[in-house]
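Researcher: Structure prediction, please.
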Amino acid sequence: MTIRRRDLLAATGAAVTFVLPAGAGETAAAPSCPVPVPPLPPRGLLFSCKYSMTRGASLEERLASARDAGLDGVDFDEAASVTPAGLRDAAAKTGVFIHDAINHEHWKARLTSPDEATRAKALANLEHCIRVSHAAGGSSVLIVIGNADDGPEGPDRARAEIRKAIPLAAALGQRILFENVWNGLFYEDDGARDQSVRPFADYIDSFHSPWVGAFFDLGNHARYGDVAAWVRGLGPRIAKLDIKGYSNARADKEGKRKGFVDIADGDIDWAAVRAALGEIGFTGWVSAEVGGGDTARLAVVLDQMRQALLG
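Model: Predicted structure follows.
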């Protein structure tokens, strides 16, 4: 006789153990105290900084500095330095919400690499970050998928590896989010200033998965396209945002890598960006990626983020 699962549960009232992908269980143990609950954004946006922007003698001190600056949370970009349980406990002790973990070594151990061992290392790093973010209460992992120097087949190799991680990401409720960076992929490095975001959008769409999206950096491609137009082009693919300033005028004089500036500086049309974000209905996390410092410096960065995106 076949016993249906729902009949067995109704008859016994037994607890159910769900089997997660290999390794996922390391985050299942209940913490000694719960991780923080994410705040509710009064105007639709939550502001965070990269953990590497903070200063302090310990993990807890650095998280507390972001909290004391008034930030809503932290985007954790040193995942190799922690275990899932360690970061969970630090978040619980400080009351700091960690919304994301950034894939470590993604510029070195690349998912686009033609070397199989390198790709295996990149996949293991991604899976570690998925577990770290889940343990701390976060909802995503930011990754750079690789580099154009790995050849035209690189994006296909990366897609195959990322697909291996999607079951774990789905089991733990973590989205795998691609950042637009200066890696030569999905844009022309020496191309025009009005390039389309379509190649990047098409790559995201090629996964056909709700667990894949964009962690769109508002400053990274201000050299290559209209920021507001790229926001509209990506639309609901954007799950989270990075923010920094960029000055094309400065880059024209001193070189394109000199164009990155504080959020309040540069020549990005933030009013147009605000309008575009409103049109696509974006809400959620925005992470600063600029020069960091002490608590006072982080408070200045927070003010600049609010000025740029709230007006």
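Model: The chain has one domain: 41-310.
Researcher: Thanks, that helps.
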